[in-house]
Amino acid sequence: MPPVAPMLAKSVKDVPDGPGFLYEPKWDGFRCIVFRDGDEVELGSRNERPMTRYFPEVVAAVREQLPERCVVDAEIVIAAGDKLDFEALLQRIHPAKSRVDLLAEQTPASLVIFDLLALGDESYMDTPLGERRRKLDEVLAHVTSPVHRTSVTDDPALAGEWFATFEGAGLDGIVAKPVDGPYEPDKRTMFKIKHERTADCVVAGFRWHKTSTPEQPLLGSLLLGLYADDGRLQHVGVVASFPAKRRAELVEELAPWRENALDGHPWRDWAEAQAQFEGRMPGAQSRWNAKKDLSWEPLRPERVVEVRYDHMEGTRFRHTTQFVRWRDDRDPASCTYEQLEVPVSYDLSSLLS
User: Fold this and answer.
1) What is the C-alpha R_g of the chain?
2) Catalytic residue among 10, 13, 26, 83
3) d(CA 25, CA 40)
4) What is the pTM of this model?
5) Cα(first)–Cα(last) distance of the chain, in Å?
6) Contact at 8 Å (CB) between 236 and 311?
7) What's CA 147's distance to the chain center, in Å?
8) What three-state secondary structure class fits 338?
9) Average pLDDT score over residue span 197-213
10) Poorest-pLDDT segment among 84-88, 116-120, 157-161
11) Which of 64, 106, 121, 347 is the most exposed place for a label (fewest CB within 10 A)?
């Protein structure tokens, strides 16, 4: 019965080699535990909250194609052309049913299944992964789009090829799972291997940490920018991985760049604007938490920081980046999109089929 916390993965630098692993592509979507009991379907998120109302087309596909009573672990994704589109997924988290229904028609989602937790009256959570996968292939042998079984291999060399090529379809790495392992909710017993790159970005603002006070100001995250071809500074993400002591030091260290920061600042109008480029701006309300404070403090865009990132989603970093070092030797005007590595395109439809 829901909720069930999904099994998690810990990051490693290389694809684990040797026997004893099954390898799968790492899909870039919404992790989802799917529960079906007859016509009753629930889509549970990674934080164990229901997502059922946001994906009516997935619910319909589950009723049509999955066994009448089952629980599976899966990923909800949206394909746009030959790539996954995470931004389209974010648009689905909307309070208005009419909007959700419209987007379900315009940008329908797919369900990529990779594990079996229960079938009928039988739990498979203590069953080794290899047996779970064989049973999954058996009961889902008939599924068709928009329901898919993920690719799987026990060949580390092939997994390495997937790691290099599938990124062009919007996937963000490889997952390695112990073939003899049970399903362990909320435990990091799998391994994920993600792409890792660096970029030099302009620091144009920051947010206060949620524990910051006037007596003890703490920096939460630095707002990063890259210059687009038309010369505008595009907000591309944040870097936020700082220890508490460093958060306090950064407030003092960046103080000189706060002076007159709004004079001619490229993001000055964002407090009132509703969209910039692809609709993402540092002061926009959080889609996941309406009470979360995303207000920001401007900095004169004169400092450059090198950050580590995994991949891009459109014009932005897909995940929070990691601080590497300050690059005071770099001219901020030189921080453009041209420095970023572009993955070779890969046909997503061939992977899903």
Assistant:
1) 22
2) 26
3) 29
4) 0.74
5) 31
6) no
7) 20
8) helix
9) 93
10) 84-88
11) 121
